[in-house]
Specification:
single chain, alpha/beta, Rossmann fold, nine-stranded mixed β-sheet, three-stranded mixed β-sheet, 24% helix, binds glutamine, glutaminase activity, Class_I_gatase-like
Length: 197
């Protein structure tokens, strides 16, 4: 029985819960998807998703609720963790444009520019290419961070907008600039959750 936790302190939590449930169903796997708020809920967890939202707030609340250190440790031990948008910022090793109080899990060897897209194009949708599927995927970008540098050879691109990398994986960790939870296409969630099976 798979237990997926969506960090549920701020951001688009419900959308990720829906997408993860649907993905498990499509994979034919029985499991539960929980709204993760407290460290006690990490017992028996198989995978974690960090949603989009506002990364300073998510960082602050993860520290306040005692989730920051245990989630970091689980990620270091190999637990599958996926972060989208603000979640990508949380996973990054280096962040350009962070606020001084902001803390990062540092589980993904990338440098991310926090508010990279200018105001004119602060939100857009565009077809992106996935490494694991022939069909294009609708990338929803909302004041998206930008992956500006891959900092180790262990980081592999898995999504591209034109020739620019917009999604990466490093063993058990996935970071995406866009929001797969805001489409009804669960291919990315399925790819991620296979890591937990
Ligand atoms: N730019 C936002 C931040 O810094 C992230 C935006 C998003 O998650 N849609 O947190």
């Amino acid at each position: 029985m798979v237990k997926v936790g969506v960090i549920g302190l701020q951001g688009d939590v419900e959308e990720h819960i829906w997408a993860a449930k649907k993905a498990l169903e499509n994979l034919g796997v029985s499991g539960e998807v929980i709204w993760l708020k407290k460290p006690g809920q990490l017992e028996g967890i198989s995978a974690i998703i960090i949603p989009g939202g506002e990364s300073t707030t998510i960082s602050r609340l993860m520290v306040k609720n005692g989730l920051f250190e245990p989630v970091k440790k689980l990620g270091e031990e190999g637990l599958p963790i996926m972060g989208t948008c603000a979640g990508l910022i949380m996973l990054s090793r280096e962040v350009i444009g962070a606020t001084p109080e902001q803390k990062f899990l540092g589980l993904l060897d990338v440098k991310t520019n926090r508010n990279a897209y200018g105001r004119q194009v602060d939100s857009f949708e565009a077809p992106i290419k996935l490494a694991f599927s022939d069909e294009p995927f609708t990338g929803v970008f909302i004041r998206a961070p930008r992956i500006v540098e891959l900092l180790s050879e262990g980081v592999k691109p898995i999504a591209w907008l034109g020739d620019r990398v917009v999604g990466v994986e490093q063993d058990n960790i996935i970071g995406l600039e866009f929001h797969p939870e805001l489409t009804d296409d669960t291919r990315v969630h399925e790819y991620f959750l296979k890591k937990a099976l």
